[in-house]
């Protein structure tokens, strides 16, 4: 009985304390978690008064060892990629097999099993006009450019695929194109 009276007294006391003036700031538990302080590390002051240079130095290669893709998403950029970019990976059986595996994940639903533009989404009439690899003059560079930037209804796949995976898919697409041209 004594503990029940103590419990009721604590509840009443907590209720009275919680009815403070709502216009005054109350005590907050870990206030920096409610309102975080945004830091601009690239600002002149940096972080805590020390400059931080988080931007890469021009001409450097990021971790992973592959240069950044700096060809712009324009018609001129497409033509530049088409003529200048070459596949750095050799067309080995392992690269073709991995390219096929990735093609079946990312490309087959639109471009089809043979690369003829007759994938599931085309058959279901979700997208129309998906080109066949046979109908276009494509190179490894133009395919890479389209994977990076997208083209027409095709969106960019640069976020889903690594540098090597893109080139492996390109090996497989070139093989599909060669089979279509026979």
From TrEMBL:
Residues 94-177 form the Cytochrome c domain. Keywords: Heme, Iron, Metal-binding. SUPFAM superfamilies: Cytochrome c. GO terms for molecular function: electron transfer activity; heme binding; metal ion binding. The keyword Iron applies. The keyword Iron applies. It holds the Pfam family Cytochrome_CBB3. InterPro entries: Cyt_c-like_dom, Cyt_c-like_dom_sf. Gene3D superfamilies: Cytochrome c-like domain (1.10.760.10). This is Cytochrome c1.
């Amino acid at each position: 009985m004594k503990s029940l009276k103590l419990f009721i007294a604590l509840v009443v006391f907590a209720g009275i304390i919680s009815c403070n003036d709502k216009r005054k700031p109350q005590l907050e538990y870990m206030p920096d978690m409610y309102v975080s302080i945004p830091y601009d590390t690239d600002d002149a002051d940096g972080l805590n008064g020390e400059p931080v240079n988080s931007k890469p130095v021009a001409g450097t290669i990021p971790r992973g060892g592959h240069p950044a893709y700096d060809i712009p998403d324009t018609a001129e950029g497409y033509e530049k990629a088409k003529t200048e970019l070459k596949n750095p990976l050799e067309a080995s059986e392992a690269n073709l097999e991995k390219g096929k595996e990735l093609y079946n994940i990312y490309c087959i639903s639109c471009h089809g099993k043979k690369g003829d533009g007759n994938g599931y989404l085309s058959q279901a009439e979700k997208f129309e006009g998906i080109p066949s690899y046979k109908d276009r003059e494509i190179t490894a560079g133009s395919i890479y450019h389209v994977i990076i930037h997208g083209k027409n209804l095709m969106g960019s796949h640069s976020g889903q695929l690594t540098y090597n995976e893109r080139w492996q898919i390109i090996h497989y697409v070139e093989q599909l194109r060669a089979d279509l041209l026979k």
